[in-house]
Amino acid sequence: MHDLDPLDPAYVQEVLSKPPFVTLDGVINVRDLGNYPSTIERGKITRPGYLFRSAEVSSITEDGKARMRELGITTIFDLRSDTEIRKYNTPMPEIDGVQILHIPVFKTEDYSPEMMAKRYQLYASGKNEAFIELYSQILDHGGHAFGAILRHVKDKPNEGCLFHCTAGKDRTGIMAAILLKLAGVDDESICQDYALTRIGREPAREKIMQRLSKEPLFASNNEAALNMFTCRQETMEAFLKHFDSKYGGATGYVKDYVGLSDEDIAAIQNNILIPGQPRL
């Protein structure tokens, strides 16, 4: 059995029905980044109901929109490129009371056929080294996009936000790791959060495979297509080591690539963390 074969549906539903997963009708892979203990401020946890991550939200239903407002989400940050939105016909929705900001990590020119062929080759390998190269590209291009989210956290502590890309795995996973690292969450918890996308994406498995079947590289290579589902803890472990050594970790990165100060970082930490006990 391939480790990326379909998961047992009963198991998937059981996991999706419990925290940190959040049910948002029409959206998959929705998680709350709250309730993680901090190692820099003992006795504090990341604030629940404030920071959410997900896959793209274009298919959100009216029930999903109502639930989003109930959760206190005032802003959605869309990390996808214009090219993706057009290609998959997944325009940004309109949600009363919620501001949707399009902040692409990659510009349109980063989606040339040559660039996409190289990127798909990396995804297709499923190897940690390939993902580290991909994630370095995301970090190198994503300072402006990630900065918009970080400044929201700095300036709007009472306004919940959700950020997403297409699948809610790579660009979204890097943004989640930056936030959790700044909050002092340990690497193991960050890696576990990353790996949960394997379950979070499962309801859209057929849709994803159908999309991939239209790409020449994946149409004739099922193994390569399956590797697009890769969300292994060890991948994030390897990335976090690379993040520390090349970029100076989250603090170094947000200073050098986003332009935040020590005071900004302290404000972000203060707004993310609250006194409390982690969820068991």
Please give a handful of descriptors for the protein shown.
Protein-Tyrosine Phosphatase, Chain A, five-stranded mixed beta sheet, alpha/beta, two-stranded antiparallel ribbon, 7 strands, 280 residues, single chain
What does this entry look like structurally?
The protein is globular and about 50 Å long. α4 (113-125) packs across α5, α6 crosses α15 and α8 crosses α13. The protein is α/β, with parallel strands linked by helices and 280 residues long. The protein has one domain: Protein tyrosine phosphatase superfamily (Protein-Tyrosine Phosphatase, Chain A, Alpha-Beta Complex), CATH 3.90.190. β4 (73-78), α3 (82-87) and β5 (99-102) form a beta-alpha-beta unit. It has 15 helices and seven strands.
Reconstruct the topology from this structure:
Blueprint: H1 9-16, E1 31-32, E2 44-46, E3 51-54, H2 62-70, E4 73-78, H3 82-87, E5 99-102, H4 113-125, H5 128-141, H6 143-155, E6 160-164, H7 171-182, H8 187-195, H9 197-200, H10 205-212, H11 216-219, H12 222-227, H13 233-247, H14 249-258, H15 262-272, E7 273-275
Parallel strand pairs: 3-6, 4-5, 4-6
Antiparallel strand pairs: 1-3, 2-7
Helix pairs in contact: 4-5, 5-13, 6-14, 6-15, 7-8, 7-14, 8-13, 13-14
Brief account:
It is globular, with a radius of gyration of 18 Å.
